[in-house]
Amino acid sequence: MSAVNAESGGTGHAPTSGTASVALPWPLVARAFRAAVDEAARFVGATAPNPPVGCAILDRHGDILTVAAHHRAGTAHAEARALRQCADLGLMARAAVAVVTLEPCNHTGRTGPCSEAILASPIRTVWVGVADPNPRVAGGGIDRLRAAGCAVHVLGPDGEAAAACRALITPFAHWSRTGRAWLTVKQAVDGAGSMIPPAGRTTFTSDAALTLAHRLRRATDAIVTGSGTVLADRPGLDVRRVADHAGRAPRLLAVCDRRGRVPADWRADAVARGFDVRTCDDIARLPALLGAAGVLWALVEAGPGLLAALRAAGLWDDWLTIGVGPDGTERLDVAVRTGTDTPLRLFPELGASLTAPEGEACFPAS
Ligand SMILES: NC(=O)C1=CN([C@@H]2O[C@H](COP(=O)(O)OP(=O)(O)OC[C@H]3O[C@@H](n4cnc5c(N)ncnc54)[C@H](OP(=O)(O)O)[C@@H]3O)[C@@H](O)[C@H]2O)C=CC1
Ligand SMILES: Nc1c(N[C@@H]2O[C@H](COP(=O)(O)O)[C@@H](O)[C@H]2O)[nH]c(=O)[nH]c1=O
């Protein structure tokens, strides 16, 4: 293993002789990974059932020539888009290194294999953030590139860059493995431990926390709520407060409702606003119901009744509590299932909260 790879925790493989592989200092590679992750993160919530992916193309000195992401299922993958941009800018002759958040695909799906697109370019050095968990692809892209003489470096499990690349695809990896959507619960709790807003209101958190809530909605593919919340709040549950470049918004709205209490006019209004509204009468089936509809990541915005049921059944993947103190100060706590990479990592303001243990303090639900 070369010194470059040892520094990054990567597993380098020597290229076959005669290829123009390039050894770059790790800080330049890390900078390219950050750029690729940031670009991919702009499309989280737009790509389902595909994963968000970013790609940076560098010259032999480590300068970034172009950065691109996968925008939407059925459109160009990140690598193909980055290569096209590079060609359009007349920079292809300088292209030497590709830095990709996810293993390049090696199969022909809705688009052609990215491994072949890379091999058709001058690039002979590829950095991969994480191997593709999709069983149709697993291993194929890296093997194909290596067989053709590329130096392929796969990041080891430790370090910021690898964690960010994994966080991008956590819901996709979970869905690929289990067929179930990743469930993020978001709850607001006041200083007295109550989730119930003051009379006449539907929310009580700060402007900044509400904006965070809408950014979470924008990044997810579905919203889950309960019949009690629908009856009490007639919530909109759509994306407001934040602009968007890709029209991202959850398209599915799942309402947990065993007794058929959801009013027909609220449902009709939600449908008119573009939601595919589904009723769930058994929460045990909720993650699979969402997964079967192509939902990778769902945000649960429900009251204490449904949250208590989800918690008792262990039906959550990460849990964000926005605690509002009596003086209005707010505290963010994130509980994460042990051994998983929360996609909430993609929200920098939550960074300091991600170490919260899976403990009682994170689950006040009353
Ligand atoms: N602070 C916050 O973050 C939030 C606060 N709220 C507040 O919460 C209050 C409403 O709370 P609540 O009445 O508890 O409403 P919920 O949104 O929690 O909905 C409760 C309903 O969920 C359904 N449900 C519960 N368990 C299951 C299950 N196992 N399978 C299927 N459905 C199930 C039940 O429907 P059924 O009765 O048919 O069995 C139950 O009545 C409102 O005041 C609202 O403003 C709401 C969202 C967020
Ligand atoms: N109370 C509360 C939240 N509650 C959630 O927001 C819903 C209102 O959404 P909308 O109708 O789209 O504005 C409400 O019914 C509930 O699901 N969210 C928060 O970020 N902070 C809060 O204090």
TrEMBL record:
InterPro entries: APOBEC/CMP_deaminase_Zn-bd, CMP_dCMP_dom, Cytidine_deaminase-like, DHFR-like_dom_sf, Eubact_RibD, RibDG_C. It holds the Pfam family RibD_C. Its EC number is 1.1.1.193, 3.5.4.26. The keyword Mitochondrion does not apply. GO terms for molecular function: 5-amino-6-(5-phosphoribosylamino)uracil reductase activity; diaminohydroxyphosphoribosylaminopyrimidine deaminase activity; zinc ion binding. One of its GO terms (biological process) is riboflavin biosynthetic process. Converts 2,5-diamino-6-(ribosylamino)-4(3h)-pyrimidinone 5'-phosphate into 5-amino-6-(ribosylamino)-2,4(1h,3h)-pyrimidinedione 5'-phosphate. In the C-terminal section; belongs to the HTP reductase family. This is Riboflavin biosynthesis protein RibD. It comes from Gluconacetobacter takamatsuzukensis.
